[in-house]
Amino acid sequence: MLLAPRALRAPTVPVIVAAAAFVGYAVWSLLLHHVWLATGYDLGIFEQAVRSYAHGHWPVADLKGPDFPLLGDHFHPVLAVLAPLYRLWPSPDTLLLSQAALLAVSAIPVTRCAIERLGGGPGAAFGTGYAFSSGLLNAVTFDFHEICFAVPLLAFSVERLLRREWRAAVVFAAPLVLVKEDLPLTLAALGIYLVWQGQRRLGWVVCVCGLACTAVLTGLVLPALNPDGHYAFAGRMGTPALTDGLGPKLMTLLLTFGPTAFAGVRSRVSILLVPTLAWRLLSSYPNYWGPGYHYNAVLMPIVFLAALGSSAERLRRPATVCAVLTSVVVCGALLPGAPPPATERAALAAALASIPDGATVAAGSQVAPHLTSRCRVLFFPEQPDASTSPEWIVTTRPLIAWPIPVAAQERRLRELRQERYVAVIDTEKVLVLHRR
């Protein structure tokens, strides 16, 4: 059943839920960063892009490769809107707080609809369950990503769909084309939903525009901007058997639909889930299959609002209970491992303090986001190579076996020390080399 436009009850409750979510997200993400649990992949990469925008340059991420144009990786020009904030506060904290705010704002339309359908108390509980769902908390836990812009856009757009405010729904969804190249497919799915609702002309226009944008971005724009001349993720769009990675895929579906007791499955709004689930579950890349990282975040506002718009009214209150209980379990499950001890964190901070502002550094992933606001940062162990000779190399110990084995990294460090670098700091926890 669709939501009819009418005066909202308890209008402050959705704002309170969003404010609580913002505080939780902000404290959580800042804490992870400041205890050295954030990484260069991807917080450092996105900070480099935003820093480039803030200084009036093309978005470059040296952690992806020297002078790598990040718009050749994914199409996310929406990041430019963070540039003014970054000029005021040039820090990775700016990105983390912006993400916290964007994700939290998405709780307003979800909670608002829930209060209309379920009443004040149950609606607030449902909105809280959404705010602390696994998809959103995983996104907060795993650094920063451009999809934080998509989540509120989808939440407000689907809310308008449920209120039969068709043009407003399209207006909210249209900026998805600036967030990531796969999201125009979600816009196309929205067009199909509009056709089902009798909005044929508007629906077909939206559907065709969404499909055309995806084709142009992946077929022309991204290959033109990528240094290798092709869409970087085309190779991951294989066709494995559906049973490959069956366990992670089922867990993704469970954590997508389970928090609402599968109430939204019968809603036609769920068609907006199909593009994202399809490219992930049909991909040949195993990391897309499971519920980790940030990939489920864009699904959460759709599935929660679909549950509210479902014709199966008897499922709505069980969905509220399920959403709250699931959020509690998820919060416990996502607690990270113990951070480095305070003495180790102090040693890491002291090691980085020995590197001057403006230096070129090849840094390990754990230390990279602590340098990207003031240095040019390349990624160790991929750098240095034959074409680069950074002034400094810094990495934590023990070495992480990614993207190459530890033995190969140790061998490379020995070669660098023999050829052109001298150890400035060499302990069990951190290594700092300076070029001779």
Molecular structure report:
The protein has about 425 residues and is mainly alpha-helical. It contains 17 helices and 5 strands. A 5-stranded mixed beta sheet has the order 2-1-3-5-4, sandwiched between helices. The protein starts with 11 loop residues before the first helix and ends with a strand. The relative contact order is 0.12.
Task: Report mean pLDDT, rounded to a whole number.
Answer: 91
Number of domains: 2
Order of helices and strands: HHHHHHHHHHHHHHHHEEEHEE
The share of residues in helices is 40-55%
> What sort of overall outline do the alpha carbons produce when their principal axes are compared?
globular
CA radius of gyration is 23 Å
Regions with little confidence, pLDDT below 50 for 5+ residues: 4-9
Across the major sheet, the strand order is 2-1-3-5-4
Describe the sheet with the most strands. Answer: 5 strands, mixed
